[in-house]
Amino acid sequence: VRRLHSDEDAQILPRPPVVTVMGHVDHGKTSLLDALRQTSLAAKEAGGITQHLGAFVVGMQSGAPITFLDTPGHAAFSAMRARGAAVTDVVVLVVAADDGVMPQTLEAMSHAKAANVPIVVAINKCDKPDATPERVKVQLASEGLPLEEMGGDVQVVEVSATNKSGLDQLEEALLLQAELMDLKARINGPAQAYVVEARLDKGRGPLATAIVKAGTLVCGQHVVVGCEWGRIRSIRDMARKVIPQATPAMPVEIEGLKGLPMAGDDIVVVESEERARMLSEGRRKKHEKDRLLKLEE
Ligand code: GDP
């Protein structure tokens, strides 16, 4: 009998990129995410009605999916990173074509650099009469961003979240970036996953939007999520369809946790409820101890 779980049985396959949108306040991060979300499968299946679930997927139909984290801004990116959740593969740096490079644009650039995450630039608001995308490119280049059209490797796309123009080009640029990065994941075996958002539903209890990093998360499994635990009662895709299991980079909503986890919490599969309780209790104690130590400082 061949043994499972050996390295040679690991199935490594290409996976979709996970993208975070960053940039200066009011440059259109939320609007761009809204525009992209409206093209997602969930939006199509729900007849245009979309809900903020922490992540969404575009391009499912074409078989070239891209997962977007639906929380714009640096705080979310940093919080996730601080908790060890390196989920983002590519940063979309949104810069308003009329406003140009601003302090938080530079901050986003340095966050991405520190995390070693490549940037694709989206020059937004190109519909505006006072838009000067060329000026923005010069500014970015002078801040040390090696733009493709100047011989570097950072792609730039001109978009308008308002007119929904340039979105296809942005998606193409992200897929090209993903291809260059040769993103792959082990798809069989126990799952390693992260929470990107969690909320309490009156009827269904704690719900967590999760992204699997590696392996497969299966309905019925016992899990520890941060300091919480539970047994997965259902897994749904972003169109809210019940699915039996979740594979890498596809956001899913999981139900069955006993408490509310936090964005950035890791999800670990364990073999029994007893083990799940023990591990979460241990983590809770450690968490509390760390908190008290911090207070003393
Ligand atoms: P955020 O703070 O980066 O999330 O920016 P928002 O998405 O909230 O956008 C800030 C403002 O810019 C809002 O009034 C938007 O309607 C406007 N805006 C966003 N994108 C565009 C665009 O492509 N064109 C124009 N003309 N206005 C935009």
Automatic annotation (TrEMBL):
Q: Where in the cell is it found?
A: Mitochondrion
- Domain named Tr-type G: which ranges? 14-184
In which domain of life is the source organism classified?
Eukaryota
Q: What does this protein do?
A: One of the essential components for the initiation of protein synthesis. Protects formylmethionyl-tRNA from spontaneous hydrolysis and promotes its binding to the 30S ribosomal subunits. Also involved in the hydrolysis of GTP during the formation of the 70S ribosomal complex.
Which protein family is it in?
A: Belongs to the TRAFAC class translation factor GTPase superfamily. Classic translation factor GTPase family. IF-2 subfamily.
Question: What's the protein called, per UniProt?
Answer: Translation initiation factor IF-2, mitochondrial
Q: Which organism is it from?
A: Dorcoceras hygrometricum
Starting at the broadest rank, the lineage of the source organism is: Eukaryota, Viridiplantae, Streptophyta, Embryophyta, Tracheophyta
Parent-record interval covered: 110 to 406 of 651
